[in-house]
What we know:
This protein is of the alpha/beta class. The chain has one domain (39-228): 3-Layer(aba) Sandwich (Rossmann fold). Helices cover 22% and strands 24% of the residues. The chain has four helices and nine strands; from the N terminus they run E-H-E-H-E-H-E-H-E-E-E-E-E. The chain has helices at residues 38-54, 68-74, 100-113, 128-141, and strands at 30-35, 61-65, 92-95, 116-121, 144-149, 161-168, 184-192, 198-205, 210-213. A nine-stranded mixed beta sheet has the order 3-2-4-5-1-6-7-8-9, with helices on both faces. A hairpin with a 4-residue loop joins strand 8 (198-205) and strand 9 (210-213). Helix 3 (100-113) packs parallel to helix 4 (128-141). The longest helix has 17 residues, at 38-54. It is globular and about 50 Å long. The model is unreliable at 1-22 and 218-233 (pLDDT under 50).
Amino acid sequence: MIVSAPLRPPAPARARLDVSTAPAPTLAAGLEEVCVEGASGVAAGLGFLVSAASQRARGGGLMVAAPRAWFRERGRLLAGGLGPLGRSGQTVLMIAPATELEALWALEEGLRSGAVALAVGAVEAASLLATRRLDLAARAAGATVVLIKTRPARDLSAARRRWRVAPHPSAPHPWDPKASGAARWRVALERSRDGASGAWILEHDLETYRLRLAEGLADHRLDLGEYALRRSG
């Protein structure tokens, strides 16, 4: 006895994402937060910010403000190493006050000067009022200000988005298998004013100085839980 099964329509072919046109998450004018873990996370977070900011404005300056103790523990940003990220010859202003409150004041003043395209502050605890002031100053200047955090962010904040950034093995080098290729990051958008979220592996394009979805991985959108991208709560 032969039993015939009903025919099922074939599963639709999975569309592949064109790496050259795929949109990568970028920074916007205003206040954003980036959460990282450990020394490698701090380095990855700064690299991601510099690369992402290069897509918005290449002419403005880069400012980093952090308490002196933060710089002693994690080191200072090397301006000469920014060339591969599209910021060759970039002026980097590093301010090392004694307290986080003074760092917040320096960030706001730098934004109001109009000479800063990206301002990064290592501030773990900022009041809602302070973050609102930073957001307003950044939007008025058409700049981006980012608070980079190494501890779970629990306080209320006016930040429009919260990212979690971690290092990822670099892309293969096109000519030397023993050398590192394009820098890559694991990036998760944990919170957004418009409700969007997601996670990606991004890489820096050495020719255009722009972020893009990592080639070979661009058609595999990551879940927020993948690669242990833990939410900061």
